[in-house]
Amino acid sequence: MPVITKISVQKKNKNRYSIFADSGKGEEYAFSVDEDVLIKYQLKKGMELDDLAVTEILYQDDIRKAYNLALHYLSHRMRSEGEVREYLTKKEIPEPTIQEAVNKLYKYKFLDDVEFSKAFVRTQMNTTDKGPEVVKIGLKEKGITGKIMEEAMLEYPFERQVEKAELLASKFVVKNKKDSSRILKQKLEQFLIRKGYPFRVIQLATEESVAEKVVEDELDALRYQGEKLQRKYSKWTGFEYKQKIKQALYNKGFSIELIDRYLEEVSDGEEDSFE
């Protein structure tokens, strides 16, 4: 049975120890262990080691290695259990060892999916323009589902969703002021859907923002689109010219009333345009 002959601190890692033993053929390197494992098994010079003991020691050392890797990974920011498992898997650590390391991380409160999820939702809410549906996708990608997700999403209240959606909508309306109210509303709804806001929030934000686009703004948008269409259909004349512009403006979402008003303006400016 091998007997420990020497224990020395490793030069490159002061928390690990090299174990040397003599099994009858002289002293030779046997294995290395973390300081915690060394203390746990009270390894010392003169101790006899059987195969079962060595197997158990090395298994516990593997767990400690995985635990230390996870601690380093967690030192940069909070992470979910799913992220830690994925990281350790990429390091080619066996699942049983990962499970033991994860249990240890929970024991010493280095992992807490509930607190992680709440912090994640708050961060996404306060630092991005993402709606709750996109935030949920982010949680799922980190392995958070079920009741933990539901509890975390309470950090993103309905009132805050509406506030953020209205801010996004107001900026969107300014950027797309050359569109008709109908087309603007359609584009805005699709924009907010992509951002992850639910229908009720989109409805409130859209109604509020599009309502601010007064008639004069709508007419300005129509004039802008009309001028482009005049150039597009410049080869046409008379009734056909007028009808093509009228149909195109209607397809762009402008009301017949405003279209007729615009065409009257054009007719007044160019009396022979539609003769």
In short:
The chain has helices at 35-40, 51-74, 81-90, 95-107, 113-127, 132-141, 146-153, 158-175, 181-195, 199-211, 215-232, 238-251, 256-269, and strands at residues 3-9, 16-22, 27-34.
Write the layout of secondary structure elements.
Blueprint: E1 3-9, E2 16-22, E3 27-34, H1 35-40, H2 51-74, H3 81-90, H4 95-107, H5 113-127, H6 132-141, H7 146-153, H8 158-175, H9 181-195, H10 199-211, H11 215-232, H12 238-251, H13 256-269
Antiparallel strand pairs: 1-2, 2-3
Care to describe what's here?
Helix 5 (113-127) crosses helix 6 (132-141). The chain folds into four domains: 3-78, Arc Repressor Mutant, subunit A, CATH 1.10.10; 113-153, Orthogonal Bundle (Arc Repressor Mutant, subunit A); 158-213, Arc Repressor Mutant, subunit A (Orthogonal Bundle), CATH 1.10.10.10; 216-269, Arc Repressor Mutant, subunit A (Orthogonal Bundle). The chain has 13 helices and three strands. The model is unreliable at 271-275 (pLDDT under 50). The radius of gyration is 35 Å and the shape is rod-shaped. The protein has helices at 35-40, 51-74, 81-90, 95-107, 113-127, 132-141, 146-153, 158-175, 181-195, 199-211, 215-232, 238-251, 256-269; strands at 3-9, 16-22, 27-34. The chain has a three-stranded antiparallel sheet. The protein has 275 residues and is mainly alpha-helical. Belongs to the RecX family. This is Regulatory protein RecX. Residues 160-203, 216-263 form the RecX third three-helical domain. Modulates RecA activity. It holds the Pfam family RecX_HTH2.
